[in-house]
Design a protein that fits this description.
The structure is a single chain. The chain is an alpha+beta fold. 52% of the residues lie in helices and 18% in strands. The chain has 13 helices and 20 strands. It holds the Pfam family HisKA.
Length: 596
Amino acid sequence: MSLPSYPGRALVRRHALPLLAVVLLTVVAGSLLRLYAHRQALSDLRGETLRIARQEERLLSSELQRFRLLPIVLVEYPDVGDALRNGSVEAAARLNDKLRGLAERTGAPVIYAIDRRGRTVAASNAGRADSFVGRDYGFRPYFRQAMRTGTSEYFALGNTSHRPGLFLARRIGPATAPDGVVVVKVEFAHMVQAWASDAGQTLLLDDHGVVVVTTDPAAEFTLTRPLNPSAKMAIRESQQFGTIALRPGPYRIAGGDATDREGTRYIVGVTPAPLPRWQLVHVLPSKPALKEADGWVRSVTALIAVGLIGLTLLAIWRRTRAERAAMAREALEEEVARRTAELRATNDQLTVEISERIRADQRFRAAREELAQANRLGSLGSITAGVAHEINQPVAAIRTLADNARTFLSRDKPDKAAGNLATIVELTERIGSIVQEMRRFVRRGTHGLGPVSLEAVLDGTMLLIGDRFRTAGVALERPRGGALPRVVAGRVRLEQVLVNLLQNALDAVAETPSPRVRLTVVEHPDGVELTVEDNGPGLDPAIATEIFTPFVTGKPDGLGLGLGIARDIMTEFGGVLETISSSLGGAGFRLRMRRA
């Protein structure tokens, strides 16, 4: 299309208002889109921050639960009571060896026993320069609270090592005549390294708002809120943080937002920590998310501006074409009137000058043809209406694509969006099955026994642990070719046994070329046997005969409790869990169960 050739100033004056309207609409649309995009970006960032905080809290809970079992188990050691109650030197020496071995197997920094007077009588670091043996810890709050209430969990700097950690204490003996306290110290360096792999910073706050563990070194042992006088006195008297002077932290947290000393804004995710009145806080900077949102706004605003400019140019073109057609019709009408008058004037002379009349007739015919042409030009107005309709459809598509572009650009995967949607539908069904199985697995059930489908037990176990095998690239062979029998058991606890055995097999073949794990079911007239075999290095002969004994394990970081628990569960079922020679060359375990 071509615009009419108006002079420059006249063209600006005629079309200044539509062009100004385009500019204003573009600015308004951009402002509204920016407001929406910023709100959506911050909302998504809040969700991501809270997700990370909850994920890190679950990791912390898992780590603490592993160490919380140790004081409970140590209470049952006969040497603990003898060393604390009777002051037996031989019992203390034996206890030193046991505590040292237990600390090495579990990764605990130190485990020690304190008598009722507050003096340490045995420790895992006995015989070293930093030994706790003989030291007085009667002033420590964890000792006093454990003696008073039975248990205590207290965070502080070590008086000897000067390293921070959580002290888990448990009283030995009744409250009326206690023998002393067993203490396990937990340090968080490994946990901080795991947290550091996530974006942002993580802060673990105690009940006074002190940052005790963090991925940000500048925030360690700082305050997120002022301490009251009683809290200050308690911290000073207990020497909880040694000589460290608690100072205000680098983050000012207000609700779900925070700022640092440079004014950088953060989004805050807060979740309760697995300790009384403690909180786990995760902060993510908001600037990258807002910058990404601004990029999306610029792209969509540009599309809107292109659409508005196209509509405006179309309207200008239609209006100028109509004006030109009207001017052409007016000129033709004037010409027709003039020529008609000429014909009438010359009509009286037709009898004399035939040739002149013929020429006049020819001029009349030519004028009539031009009038027909002008009428055709006027019809263009209705024809262009159809053209405008055809243009409105792509404009509407631009708006739809702009809405879709937000999702594509936010994920930065526009070429995979369609495939992802189909995949999400399939994964939703599988996630539903997994969540249902996990809920059943973790639900606190009764201890009753009954007929259980072995096929259903294996299916549930695969939902819980099958993904780990696929991720690790380990071939898992399970029984095929027909329905499996029913056995006398409890489904959840039988799944627990199988999960334990399969996890052990998966760990055993981690360094094995072409790793394989096989499940086999053999039926007998009076029972059913289920075997779990792998092609790993097999059981260490030094511990093979004691593999079901508590705290005996071939894993460097294991507690040695899983197989013992599994054997006890099978005993409750009236069955047997035993080791066998693996046909694959590694370790093998056989479960004998009663047929239902």
